[in-house]
Design brief:
By secondary structure, the protein is of the alpha/beta class. The chain is built from eleven helices and eleven strands. It has a single domain, classed as Protocatechuate 4,5-dioxygenase, Chain B (3-Layer(aba) Sandwich).
Length: 302
């Protein structure tokens, strides 16, 4: 998520991480309502739409590249976690909802702020949105934590925009869905042993049958901190994965969630297809910071 100052529409994430930490108490409260507490033993996190945060202004409007067939069972995809891309995020969730219902979103997101105390961060949170509360799938979240051998990291998700930005869209388009969130150290180099263990933990939820009720959401942004030429070069490499999705082409993706891309690649078959709804970047959308660009791929796999 991008914050604004008095002179710009947004500032880089590295600048406002300290700000975010300072306002935890306004964005997150302990659950007091007994009904909510009965359904979630953890904390309730107030999302940006519930807090009525302003969506950053944009000047660019990229066109959709492609859509999956209307009856396709889309079961995974990549989506940005920058609110600057609100229009594209909203359309991405809309296209999923047009094709299927989702019982549980499995969200792999980067852990941005160095708050994770373990290799994987999980917790039993619930999120307050303008359209209601989104709950963790408690039983499944605990089963994944047990498989990975970790305890819950309660300090991570109140400030983690890698998931918090996306929750209001889930509440809007999938009001009955629950979520399982796993925070990971997303920047390269990839620890393949850890990434494989995460894939093993999620494998039972992404068999051919399970893909009909679950969705693997990879929260990720792609090229970071480059100029336009460098960003385009990196994105051309990343596009190789979407053009030919396989358990070997994942290495072309240059993004801030490499473990998530690796896990996704483990669940691909020879018949898997992918489409890119949107490919854009922060400079195209905002017209600002042409030497500090972040790029976005909005994709769906079916």
């Amino acid at each position: 998520m991008l914050l604004r100052d008095n002179n710009k529409r947004f500032v880089p994430l590295k600048i406002f991480s300290v700000i975010f930490l300072a306002v935890i108490c306004t964005g997150c409260t302990r659950v007091n309502n007994r009904n909510i507490k009965a359904l979630s033993g953890g904390q309730i996190i107030n999302t940006w739409d519930y807090l009525e945060e302003q969506i950053p202004s944009v000047i660019g409007s990229p066109q959709i590249e492609a859509l999956p067939p209307h009856k396709a069972n889309v079961w995974a995809g990549t989506v940005s976690h920058h609110l600057l891309a609100d229009t594209q995020i909203d359309r991405w969730f809309y296209e999923i909802a047009e094709r299927r219902k989702v019982e549980t979103f499995f969200i792999i997101c980067p852990s941005h702020y160095g708050l994770s105390s373990q290799v994987w961060s999980l917790d039993n949170c619930c999120w307050q949105t303008k359209n209601g509360i989104v709950y963790t799938d408690e039983k499944t979240e605990q089963a994944i934590a047990d498989y990975l051998g970790v305890k819950y990291d309660s300090q991570v998700f109140p400030v983690e925009h890698g998931v918090n930005v996306l929750i209001p869209y889930i509440a809007r388009y999938f009001p009955k869905a629950k979520i399982c969130v796993i925070g990971v150290e997303g920047e390269p180099p990839l620890n393949q042993k850890n990434a494989q263990l995460l894939a093993d933990a999620l494998a039972p939820y992404f068999t051919d049958k399970a893909k009909k009720k679950n969705f693997l959401l990879i929260s990720t942004d792609f090229a970071h901190h480059g100029n336009l030429e460098g960003t385009q070069y990196k994105d051309q490499r990343s596009r190789e994965f979407f053009n030919n999705p396989s358990d070997s082409t994942w290495v072309y993706c240059g993004c801030d969630n490499r473990p998530g891309i690796y896990v996704l690649s483990r669940f691909l078959s020879g018949d898997t297809k992918a489409v890119i709804l949107y490919h854009t970047n922060s400079y195209e959308l905002s017209g600002q910071d042409e030497d500090d660009i972040t790029s976005y791929f909005f994709s769906l796999f079916y």
